[in-house]
Amino acid sequence: MAISVDSPSESEDLCRKAGYTFPFLSDSHTEVIRRYDLLHKGAGVHGHDVARPAEFLIDSSGVIRWINLTDDLRVRARPDQILEAARSW
User: Fold this and answer.
1) Of 33, 44, 62, 80, which has the maximum CB count within 10 A?
2) Which of 47, 43, 66 has the alpha carbon at shortest distance from 56?
3) CB distance 27 to 4 below 8 Å
C-alpha cells in the first residue's frame, strides 16, 4: 500500500501510468502521514507538505520488521534490499 497527499484521481492516474497494482491511500489532509511521523514539510511542489519517502515491511501480526526512510524523493530502497530484509526475519 502507498500513502500520498495526492487526490484519489491523481493517484489513480499515477498508478495507471506507472503500472502499479497496489492500493494508494489519498491523505490530502496528512492525517495518517502525521500519525506515522512521515510529514516532509514544504518538500512538495510550491512548498506543499508531502509524505516523506519511506518503505516498511510489516509482518502478518502487524509488527514493523524493517523501515527505510529518506528525505530525498528520488532515493528509494532497491527491490533486492527489501527482499534481503524480508528474508532476515
Assistant:
1) 33
2) 66
3) yes
Task: Report pLDDT digits (tens) over 25-70.
Answer: 999 899 999 988 899 888 888 998 888 889 999 999 999 999 999 8
Residues 39 and 80: their CA atoms lie apart, in Å, by 26
Q: Nine-digit cell at 15?
A: 498508478
Grid coordinates belonging to 21 = 497494482
pTM of the predicted model over 0.90: no
CA-to-CA distance for 26 and 8, rounded, in angstroms? 6
Contact 4, 25 (CB under 8 A): yes
Cell (9 digits) for 51: 509524505
Determine the Cα–Cα distance for residues 38 and 82; give it in Å rounded to an integer: 19
Q: What is the CA radius of gyration of the chain?
A: 14
Q: Nearest 5°: CA angle at 32, between 30 and 36?
A: 110
